[in-house]
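Run Transposase through structure prediction, thanks.
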Amino acid sequence: MVKYTREQRLRAVRLYEQYDRSAASVINELGCPSRQMLVRWHRAWVEAGRDDGGSLGDGRGERYTPGQKRAAVDHYLRHGRCAARTIRALGYPCKALLARWVDELEPGQRRISRAPVDAGTRRKAVVEYASGSRTSRQIGEELGVSADVVRNWKHKMLAGDDKERAMGDDADKGGTPKSREDRHRDDGGRSLEGMRRERDEIRSQLTRMRAERDELEIELEIIRYTKELLGKGRGADPDNLTNAGRTRLVLHLADRFAMKPRDLLGRCGLSRSTFYDNGKRLGRPERDEWLLDPVRRAFEQSRERYGYRRIWRMLRDRGIRVCARRVMKLMTRHGIAHYHVK
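Sure, done. The structure for Transposase is below.
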């Protein structure tokens, strides 16, 4: 620890005031001390009435009192055992000094940020993280490492190592002695070839799980968008989705999942010719669009009890001349169905 005499401290605080309290100017001229230390010296000097340096001490002996040590250790233990948080709150000491105080006053209470982790535990952690069952932060908190370390384990295990692969090829050809292969075994005594096989298995499991996840996401999106097209009223049956609705569904899925429409036709029950024919018609206005509002109003006035024939009679009485079959198709297409009482 660097010690400063009373004269050095007094000169530093006087220059600090002379340079309009510019710590950078003082440090550039004297080469010391740090900004925090200079501010602390100046505060003590001002509180003592700008004396001749008696309040600054001679720099010999302990820099911090036992009370300051205890206060720093207590703050460290009460606030999550984070050295940076304690230093930021109190303004002292450095991390190494704080660690020494904690070991002296509270043995065994200092947090070790990174504990050694064996190869088997690392592989298990990578499988859990790659499968999505747990986050890297959760795994890191359990093992006593940071989330970045868990992600690095994954990258190292799943990424191909061209150098090791070339060494393995040379070993198969007999160009590399077995003793060199033995030197590249891990802590569990497993060879590089075994580690490669395990890595490939993990990679294949990860690929299969991602494919299953993508399939489930597509199925859920099909159900959600079909309900959106049909509405939430009674009679909204996904099997009643028209070809135009299925075409809209294919276009929506292709845009949502960045897929080609032809790869989704079989899943949505639509032929190629029907898809392209309806795609040309989507921009045209619907033929019965003007009739939908009168049908809905008549259905609501009947307290949602009339079928298409009574709705058709109500429309005819109001001067709207259309056939009953047209009203039936419109009500079926938009999920307008009366309530059956048994």
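The chain has a mean pLDDT of 78.
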